């Protein structure tokens, strides 16, 4: 008798967690999410799903909580999306970043090994692992050269996932995802910082947008497309790691130009460069080659760069308008 599909998602309250939970519900999964206990509960992204998912308290820093959670839920799949995932914060909090992002993945893998080694495991790896890239585009064979404590922590989590796969025959995969954005992206990240500012400027609530390196190049895709790749990786006969990317790169300046243009504004009237937003060690360019995923998983992105920018600006314009009208806090 086959086991019913039951997924546990760490980081379910984040952008990817929300999109993945929605996708798995559509696929007929029983969806569980792990959340950290905090003084203020922030479930805005998954609010439409709350009556269809089950949330449980747990923490990647607390090994025993993970063991108990696996014993209680008995998932068939675990998607480890939780991390200290903001690159600038990783420079100011490098130890916390290592504890959560690197060792947190190890704790979950060890919990799986102890409780039920048949549980399939997905690790959210990152293009930030490539860092100072020697070649372009980057694929599964490109060497890692991380340029932030976040990137370093992700490299550790990536290789410990490989190690548990090879050492204990666990179905464990890593998705090396390049930048993926959406209206659910946190406003600390540059793309959403831009679209949120555009909406506030358009509605007269903000005068200027301050940014760092406008020449940084990234391969930006839509988060809703990328979580489909996560799901597909977990359905294969044998576990393999995949780069997930659009294969096209754009500068921060191009993102800014399109975002302001969508709102009928000239970006040069509002954007100021601020050295405070420059990283101690910059990653200047990232562009992924997802040929392996396209060939083996049948995956390809559906939303292009222009559509992504338009989607995010439109959502923020609508949100800020409602906020201005007193319909949102």
From TrEMBL:
UniProt keyword Transport present: no
EC number(s) reported in the record: 4.2.1.47
Keyword terms of this UniProt record: Lyase, NADP
GO molecular function: GDP-mannose 4,6-dehydratase activity; NADP+ binding
Domain annotation NAD(P)-binding: ranges: 8-312
Any one Gene Ontology BP term: 'de novo' GDP-L-fucose biosynthetic process
One Pfam family linked to the record: GDP_Man_Dehyd
InterPro entries assigned: GDP_Man_deHydtase, NAD(P)-bd_dom, NAD(P)-bd_dom_sf
Enzyme class: lyase
Chemical reaction(s) catalysed: GDP-alpha-D-mannose = GDP-4-dehydro-alpha-D-rhamnose + H2O
Cofactor(s) the protein needs: NADP(+)
Origin: domain of life: Bacteria
Family in the record: Belongs to the NAD(P)-dependent epimerase/dehydratase family. GDP-mannose 4,6-dehydratase subfamily.
Function: Catalyzes the conversion of GDP-D-mannose to GDP-4-dehydro-6-deoxy-D-mannose.
HAMAP family reported in the protein's UniProt record: GDP_Man_dehydratase (MF_00955)
PANTHER family membership: GDP-MANNOSE 4,6 DEHYDRATASE, GDP-MANNOSE 4,6-DEHYDRATASE
Protein's recorded name: GDP-mannose 4,6-dehydratase
Name of the encoding gene: gmd
């Amino acid at each position: 008798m086959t086991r019913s599909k039951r997924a546990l998602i760490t980081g379910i309250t984040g952008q990817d967690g929300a999109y993945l939970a929605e996708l798995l519900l559509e696929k007929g999964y029983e969806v569980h999410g792990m959340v950290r206990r905090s003084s203020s509960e922030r479930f805005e992204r998954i609010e439409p799903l709350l009556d269809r998912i089950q949330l449980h308290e747990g923490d990647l820093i607390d090994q025993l909580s993970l063991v108990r959670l696996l014993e209680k839920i008995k998932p068939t799949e675990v998607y480890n999306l939780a991390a200290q995932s903001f690159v600038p914060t990783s420079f100011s909090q490098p130890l916390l970043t290592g504890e959560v992002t690197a060792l947190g993945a190890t704790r979950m893998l060890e919990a799986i090994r102890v409780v039920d080694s048949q549980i399939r495991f997905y690790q959210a790896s990152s293009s930030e692992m490539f860092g100072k890239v020697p070649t372009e585009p980057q694929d599964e064979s490109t060497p890692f050269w991380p340029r932030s404590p976040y990137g370093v922590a992700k490299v550790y989590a990536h290789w410990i996932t490989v190690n548990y796969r090879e050492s204990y025959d666990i179905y464990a995969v890593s998705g090396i995802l390049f930048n993926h954005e959406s209206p659910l992206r946190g406003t600390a990240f540059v793309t959403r910082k831009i679209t949120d500012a555009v909406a506030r400027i358009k509605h007269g609530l903000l005068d200027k947008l301050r940014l760092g390196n406008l020449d940084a190049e990234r391969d930006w895709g839509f988060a809703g497309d990328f979580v489909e790749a996560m799901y597909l990786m977990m359905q294969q006969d044998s576990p393999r790691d995949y780069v997930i990317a659009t294969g096209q790169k754009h500068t921060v300046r191009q993102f800014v130009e399109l975002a302001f243009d969508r709102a009928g504004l000239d970006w040069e009237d509002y954007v100021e460069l601020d050295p405070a937003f420059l990283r101690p060690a910059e990653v200047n360019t990232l562009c992924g080659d997802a040929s392996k995923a396209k060939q083996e998983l049948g995956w390809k992105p559906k939303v292009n760069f222009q559509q992504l920018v338009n989607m995010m600006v439109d959502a923020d314009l609508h949100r800020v308008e409602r906020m201005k009208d007193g319909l949102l806090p």
